[in-house]
Amino acid sequence: MNEAIRQRKTYVSLSLVCFLLGILSWLPNFLFQYGFAYWMLTFIINPIGIVFGVFGKSKFCVILNVIMTFSFFIFMFVGSIIEAFVH
C-alpha cells in the first residue's frame, strides 16, 4: 500500500510539472510581446499531464491541465472580448 501512495504522488507531481511547463511555454509571448510559437507545446505537454493526473487520481491536476490545453482558445476569446470593448 505504501508503494501505491508513493506512485500516486509521483503521478500528481508529474502532472503539476506538465502544468508548469504549459505556463512556461506561454511566458515568452507575454514577456517579450512577440508571438513565439512555444505556446503550441501546450497541445503536447498538457494532455500528458492530464493522463498523469488521471493515474494519480487528482481531479485538481486534471482540471489545471485541461485549462492549459485549451488556453489558446481561452486567450483568443478573452482577447477578442477586450478588443471589442476597446474599439
UniProtKB/TrEMBL annotation:
What keywords tag this UniProt record?
Answer: Membrane, Transmembrane, Transmembrane helix
Presence of keyword Transmembrane helix: yes
Task: State if Transmembrane is listed as a keyword.
Answer: yes
Q: Membrane-spanning regions, if any?
A: 12-30, 36-55, 62-82
Protein name (database record): Uncharacterized protein
